[in-house]
Amino acid sequence: MSYANILFEMADGVATLTLNRPDKLNSFTGEMHAEVRDALARVKGDPTVRCLLLTGAGRGFCAGQDLSDRAMEPGDEPPDIGAALETNYNPLVRTLRGLEMPVIAAVNGVAAGAGANIALGCDLVLAAKSASFIQAFCRLGLIPDAGGTWLLPHRVGTQRAMALAMLGEKLSAEEAERIGLIYRAVDDAELMPTATALARQLATAPTRGLALTKRAIYAAATNTMDEQLDLERDLQREAGRTADYREGVTAFLEKRAPTFEGK
């Protein structure tokens, strides 16, 4: 598939997916969803890719849904937004969450609506200090979607989640870092160099172990302590059988830097 709405490249074990509708603040259309799905399928199918970096072109990360796709004339039947979630946004969130590799969001500007929650659903979120996050759904009579009603209370607690969702106030990147919503806010000029360096670092790490770590940490949100201990046992058993674990132990004993292959 050729891409008109995204940019996609793979190098040094890192796949970089850039939402590329800068004149529309990278808001989603059906066509862009299709291109993102295709790119993510390529990521999943390529064993050389060991980290995904997601960002946006221009002055925004993503403004969510392109509402021109949902314009209504008087008397028109209302759109089935639930179907749009089932077809596009929910599979996207599940895919990012389920990728067997680290997924980094580099938020370069405004992230609003579903765009904010897609970014927040990534494993690590870096943001330029000029960036902002807005739960804009309340301005349209909608609820936060793309995982927003799960992510917000789990990250920042019920009260702050309610305020963000009901008031739709702009949250700065630095405040988002302070309250634990994102990993780190950096100077604007340092965003992509920092995100790229982090992605390359993770791409040379024991990726299989990182994937299992990702699975365990996300499972903790719903597991009891006993269930989590059982999961740790099972995943550690799997990790201990990897070639990377063998390499890590061997390198430690030989007092050299390990060379991990993500296997």
Q: What would you note in describing this structure?
A:
The chain is of the alpha/beta class and 263 residues long. The protein folds into 2 domains: 6-203, 2-enoyl-CoA Hydratase, Chain A, domain 1 (Alpha-Beta Complex); 207-253, Lyase 2-enoyl-coa Hydratase, Chain  A, domain 2, CATH 1.10.12. The protein is 45% helix and 16% strand. The strands form 2 sheets. It has a 6-stranded mixed sheet with strand order 1-2-3-5-7-10, with helices on both faces. Strands 4-6-8-9 form a 4-stranded mixed sheet. The longest helix is centred in the middle third of the chain and has 18 residues, at 81-98.
Relevant CATH superfamily of the largest domain: 2-enoyl-CoA Hydratase, Chain A, domain 1
Taken in chain order, the helices and strands follow as EEHEEHEEHEEHHEHEHHHH
Low-confidence stretches: none
Give the amount of beta strand, in percent: 15-25%
Broad structural category: alpha/beta
Q: Any idea of the CATH topology of the largest domain?
A: 2-enoyl-CoA Hydratase, Chain A, domain 1
Largest sheet, in brief, is: 6 strands, mixed
Looking across the biggest beta sheet, what order are the strands in?
A: 1-2-3-5-7-10
CATH C-level class of the largest domain is Alpha Beta
Oligomer: single chain
Counted by DSSP, the helix tally is 10
At CATH level 2, the architecture of the largest domain is Alpha-Beta Complex
Distance between the termini: 29 Å
Rounded mean pLDDT is 95
Question: Judging from the principal axes of the Cα atoms, what is the shape?
Answer: globular
Can you count the beta strands? 10
C-alpha-based Rg, rounded: 19 Å
Total domain count:
2
Helix content: 40-55%
